Each structure stands twice: as C-alpha cells, then as structure tokens.
C-alpha cells in the first residue's frame, strides 16, 4: 500500500530530526574517543549479549567484510571478546568485555547528560511524557524497518 501524504511528511520530519540530534550528540562521543560506528557496534553487541559477526553485520546493515576491520580494532582495544561458537566450529561469538561495557556506559552517560539537560530545560513534564511515547513509536518504526513483525496502531498491543 502506498504511503499517505501524512506518512510522507512524518518520514521527512523523523529523518530530519533524528539526523540533527545525531549530529549534535556526536561531538560528546568523539571527545571520549569513540566513533559512531564503534558505538553502534558495541551497542548492538550489548543488546544481543552474544552475537556472531554475520548476525552483527546484518543488524548493522553492512557487509561482513566492512565490519571485519572495526571488529579487529574493538578487540585490540579490549572492548570485544571473540569466543568459539558452541555448536558451529566455523563461527565465533562476540561479547563485550568489562572494559567495553564501561566504555558504552560512559558514552551513554555523556550523551544522555547533555540531552537530559536540554529536555529538562525545554520541555514541561507533559511534553516529556509525549516524547517518551514518541520514542516507543520510533522503536516500532525501527522494528518495522528491520523486517520484524509489527502490529499496526489501533490493533491489540499495537498502541496507541
């Protein structure tokens, strides 16, 4: 089904806003010496717990060959641990080391602090609650773009 004019407008606004926020948060991460690519990878590994490089590449939307150098850097930095897959000797599994978990937490704290300050200074409690609801909608969009089954709004469990 083709998108409606309202959906087209929403898409443009979401893309613009997410891009602007991402650009504004990037400097605090770079001051900490972590690139957006590294942050994305260690965040994905953290969410998965343990993940194969092939699965990680699929989640990141890149080819495995593209990811190989970045994974080597993260391993050399002591942020990632590669262990043999329990059932498939050809595969390995990636997980975060204690240092990787700390770097991820530090990066999140740095960007969250400036964002939380702006939210507190700019939005009243009602707007903050609306922002939380909007984040849930963005999570649903992310799931839909990742090919996961998402229930449409207005259906049971498809809030609002």
Detailed description of the structure:
The chain is built from 6 helices and 2 strands; from the N terminus they run ααααββαα. Strand 1 (80-84) and strand 2 form a beta hairpin. Strands 1-2 form a two-stranded antiparallel sheet. The mean pLDDT is 88. It has helices spanning 5-31, 36-48, 53-60, 64-76, 98-122, 125-145, and strands at 80-84, 92-96. 11% of the residues are buried. It is globular, with a radius of gyration of 18 Å.
Keywords:
160 residues; mainly alpha; Arc Repressor Mutant, subunit A; two-stranded antiparallel sheet; 6% strand
What is this structure's SSE topology?
Blueprint: H1 5-31, H2 36-48, H3 53-60, H4 64-76, E1 80-84, E2 92-96, H5 98-122, H6 125-145
Antiparallel strand pairs: 1-2
Entry summary:
It contains 6 helices and 2 strands, in the order ααααββαα. It is mainly α and 160 residues long.
Secondary-structure element sequence?
A: HHHHEEHH
- What's the count of strands? 2
What CATH first level of the domain at 32-97 would be assigned? Mainly Alpha
Compute the number of helices: 6
Strand content: 5-15%
Instruction: Give the rounded overall mean pLDDT.
Output: 88
